[in-house]
Amino acid sequence: MTHRITFYPVGNGDTSQILLTGGRRILMDYRHQKAGEDDFYPVIDLKARLQRELKEANRDYFDVVAFTHADLDHICGSTDFFELQHAQKYQGEGRIKIRELWMPAAMLLERPERDQLSDEFAILMREAKYRLLEGNGIRVFSKPPALMDWLKPELEKRGESANARDHLFVNAGTTVPGFSLGADGVEFFCHSPFIKHCEGGDIIRNDAALIFNVRFSVNGHEYDYLAVGDAEWSVIEDIVNISRYHGNDDRLAWDLFNIPHHCSYFALSDNKGKDETDPKPLVKELLLMGREESYLVSSSRPIPDNKDAYQQTQPPHVQAKKAYQRYLREVRGRKFLVTMEEPNENKPEPLVFEVTYGGVSWKKSAMVGAGGLAAAAPARAG
Questions:
Q1: Start-end of H helices in 98-144
Q2: Which residues partner with 236 through β-bridges?
Q3: What is the pLDDT of residue 97?
Q4: Does the pTM exceed 0.90?
Q5: Which of 130, 136, 237, 379 could bond to 282 as cystine, CB 3.0-4.6 Å?
Q6: Alpha carbon distance 366, 352 (integer Å)
Q7: The architecture CATH gives domain 3-367
């Protein structure tokens, strides 16, 4: 049995895919850039790559597409790529179907006109609301009162009870229905968003984004992947505190960690540091929950270590990279990887990890293909 996790090189953006041993596919975020269609530009042609992968698997759909939040680098090109149910203009013509759409409640509540991609965000919002009213093909994460204030009158118009869609909501601290360790070899534990992230005033979308512990099971052995999106340090500290309060400490451990916000120091602290970021106490504790032979992945541009890099305002931040590397060494982890650096900066390829009986292993891109897969490090068990 083998599960696979793939991170795509899309610059300072996020797109990853989980391929389960039974064939189910979960895509987390989507960022296509026209530049990637040029062979001379290092960003991948995501649209062509995913279309090819699906065609090889003889399918035209993803079982799940999860948008962690509405920022440009997580939704760009999505309304041209996916088939959307709410309007005929977004259907047919080779569009890729979404069997189940996952969204944080914030994406149904935010004001799209404030966003630089208002049209695309507004389209996704309409799709989510359509599916929620229809009662299938969606999971909404968190159930804030403001969302129910919209939903309940709409259900009344349809002659349905106010709680008729309760089964489609997922709260923090629970697992997502539809997946299980026994049937699928995976479960998704929702760490965030909390209701407080979706209440009152302007929603801070990074705080209200989807964060999961993804637990894989292979022949009785379990391994954990933390998919953290663009969270800042205060959200991470909340997750550590609340997980411990509810006895979910095991959901903080990790064998693979997609570090937040393209290696921004704000995921560690509010102080970048001169040479290295010093993480806030509970963030530090989370980093020390990494298991031996674990991996850290930065979905970001290359991270140089030179004089100019230390003055850089936008992520990735070399000071943050050094902090992550320090704690990875402390837990005796394997490697810190950057999506736009492997196998090289000029022509990066997706980072592929396999979850097998022996553990989580990075597959060097040159070894991934029809000829089979070879581990970047010896397999382990237990």
A1: 106-109, 118-134
A2: none
A3: 98
A4: yes
A5: 237
A6: 11
A7: 4-Layer Sandwich (3.60)
Would you mind telling me the total number of residues written for the chain in this entry? Answer: 382
Assess contact for 107 and 69: CB atoms under 8 A.
Answer: yes
List the domain boundaries for the chain: 3-367
SS3 140: strand
Report yes or no: 117 and 73 within 8 Å, Cβ to Cβ. Answer: no
Give the pLDDT confidence of 23-47 residue by residue, as tens digits.
Answer: 999 999 999 987 767 766 788 999 9
> Can you say whether the dihedral through the CA atoms of 364, 370, 371, 374 is positive or negative?
positive
> Quick one: CA torsion of 375, 376, 379, 382, rounded to 10 degrees?
-120
Residue 349 has a CB neighbour count (10 Å cut-off) of 17
Q: What is d(CA 77, CA 10) in angstroms, rounded to the nearest whole number?
A: 12
- Cβ(25)–Cβ(63) below 8 Å: yes
Distances (CA, A) of 248 to 197, 240, 251, 253: 20, 9, 6, 10
Residue pair 275/267 in contact by the 8 Å Cβ criterion: no
